[in-house]
Amino acid sequence: MLKLDRLTKSFKNRNAVNAISLDIPEGQMVGIIGRSGAGKSTLLRMLNRLAEPTGGSIIIDGRDITALKGRDLLAWRATCAMVFQQFNLVGRLDVITNVMTGRLYHHNFLASMLQLFTDEDRARAIRALDRLGMAHTALQQADTLSGGQMQRVAIARALVQEPRFLLADEPIASLDPLNAKIVMDALRTINQDDGITVICNLHTLDTARAYCDRIIGLADGNLVFDGAPEALTEAK
Ligand code: ADP
Ligand code: ADP
Asked: What ipTM is given for this predicted complex?
């Protein structure tokens, strides 16, 4: 169980995320919805401490994530894979190398300096790409791919990290409807087949309804809805 307790992030005197408390059982696929500026991105980024909370706590396995430092913080980050709206691939590198960077969480720094990737990393990267239907692009330069293909590569990179949580920040906002469906189907499959908890910021309610077990609604940093998609339909 991932537990948020009055989690808050303020910028100057405004709360981007305002005292949000939530229990997220593992294995769920959670959609966070809300208008631009509602606090979705800030909330998601606090979960792996890309953004520092200014109040409240995040508890996992009885430990407060907001207090972790150094090695412990890195170990936590390794368990949270991120997928971004703009994919965040290294365009000049080939696809397989981009995916293998997800393995760096499992290397110690010196080993990484001496020999960056192992045959095992390569094999895992190919398997992950294959699951996403992207193995044939392994040796292509990443910036030659379409947006939909880039996002599938980014998901493969997340998978080889062997995460416990997959945090997706507007993963389909830059994609056309067909590629959006391919990417959402892939996230749902990973959630169901691998048991990875997926927390996904989405700007359209229809997508959250179609794919998520649970919808969390934010407005101006406040929690305004938390429930099953069916409950949302009834409320409207
Ligand atoms: P969303 O992801 O729902 O679009 P964000 O979490 O990006 O919302 O932003 C929530 C609010 O916090 C917005 O008002 C935004 O302008 C503000 N904000 C986000 N990041 C920063 C920052 N680094 N400095 C100041 N304000 C920020
Ligand atoms: P999105 O809407 O896709 O979440 P934004 O345009 O809100 O993206 O934010 C892009 C980046 O700018 C983020 O890193 C966010 O933290 C930062 N940011 C957003 N709003 C502000 C702000 N008012 N002041 C400073 N930085 C901000």
From this structure: 0.72
